[in-house]
Amino acid sequence: MFDFEALSQAIPNQTVLCVGDLMLDEFVYGEVSRVSPEAPAPVIAVQRSETNIGGAGNVARNIASLGARCIFAGLIGEDEAGEKLKADLARENLIEAVLVSDSSRPTTRKVRFVSEHFSTHMLRADWELAVPAPANVEQRLIDAILPLVSRADIVLLSDYAKGVLTARVIRNIIDATKKLGKRVIVDPKSANFAIYRGATLLTPNRKEFAEATRSRADTDQNIAEAAQDAMYLADCEAMLVTQSEHGMTLVVRGGAAIHVPALPVKVRDVSGAGDTVAAVLALTLATQADWETALRMANAAAAVAVGKKGTATVTPAELRRKILPHASLAAEEKIVPAGGDLAVHLAEWRRQGLRIGFTNGCFDILHPGHVKVLTAARGACDRLIIGLNSDASVKRLKGEGRPVQDERARAEVLAALEAVDLVAIFAEDTPIDLITRVRPSVLVKGGDYTREQVVGHEIVEATGGEVVLVDILPGHSTTSLVGRARGGRA
């Protein structure tokens, strides 16, 4: 379970050491309306162009964009592209660049020609020398990087197979990081996962994973089985396989696979989406969040990145809107009256493959204990429905003089919370009928209940769902608050 607010506050306190292949990304936008008279080739009428720090540098930019500090180590040539990258990185306040130069190679540069109207890539031109750094440069990289490890909370290796992350460089970094008890995340390029032996997490895409494991990788089960063998070979704790529009699958060594579907988004450009995923994974894990939290954060960040043109970064505000999509809705848009129709909401969420959570209560006077339970409930799912007792129901349960606030007021207060996606009022004494209609994947209650006492636990568990009990905050009770407000009367 994750608390997005707590993560948002913790992430800016993290420092990531990112090592990898730096490159200059250039995007030339225009339209094609004719064929060249000189050769059977399309002619692009250029309208604009832009350059970005790309490759592993885009990972660093994403880290900084989320408010954290990044120490970046990479390799450049002694050329104009290298000087531009050096200057661009120097302007990034949260990035400390440690760049080693190699006169024997050009700085990696990629120019993409893109249709402005359709956002389709028509051609890419590359300037690069994709061979391992020579021994003398390799040693300079190692000497520059190893002193930086102690300053980082987590280390991220972004391998584009352009020469920086040689087997020797990788080995030195992983060994030094593990010796200090820190985690190493690797976005791999090599099909030989053994060279990353000892890393904490590998994040291949499905094509890379299939090639490395010689598996079809076409189902979650196939991925889970192949990943266990691959993790044994690489001696890593977990493996995350990104699958573009099919979402992401996380496999923890010796554990079950967790799959999350891709969030609905209009894809404009997939360039650099993997960089965004790696950056968010590293930052989330650096805060000591659990695996599933890191997975869901990375999945949301990927959805933001692919919705932008070019090599994109993600901001905390964009991430918030993707994780809490209903936060900006007016309260009345989130409220379903007793007997109201939930079917449209449920059908759309299930079509998207989202995990639906449910909790319930009277919520007569909202207090910190309620907020803790609701925040934890939202962290366990993708969409959270609150079952709210109607006025008549509260009166039957709590007696005369209750509720203090009518159901509309209580519903509006709940609906104003970012963690809440929908408030469904029910007239019965228990939410059993509502739970039967919702069929949630997660049923959440406060820790003052046992699993057997939670209404609807049999229904949820019978369909493969789970019951989550959240520790309550002592000293917070609606009944005691009402009593104190009434001068000691209950």
Description:
With 490 residues, this protein is an alpha/beta fold. The protein folds into two domains: 4-323, Ribokinase (UDP-N-acetylmuramoyl-L-alanine:D-glutamate ligase), CATH 3.40.1190; 331-485, Rossmann fold, CATH 3.40.50. Helices cover 35% and strands 24% of the residues. The protein is built from 17 helices and 19 strands. It has helices at 4-10, 56-65, 80-90, 135-145, 167-179, 206-213, 220-234, 273-286, 291-306, 316-323, 343-351, 368-379, 391-398, 407-415, 432-438, 457-462, 478-485; strands at residues 15-20, 22-35, 42-55, 69-76, 95-101, 109-115, 121-127, 154-158, 183-187, 201-202, 238-242, 248-252, 257-260, 335-336, 356-361, 383-389, 422-426, 442-446, 466-470. The strands form three sheets. It has a nine-stranded mixed β-sheet with strand order 5-4-1-8-9-10-11-12-13, with helices on both faces. A hairpin with a 5-residue loop joins strand 6 (109-115) and strand 7. Helix 4 packs parallel to helix 5 (167-179). The longest helix has 16 residues, at 291-306. The protein is elongated and about 85 Å long. The mean pLDDT is 90.
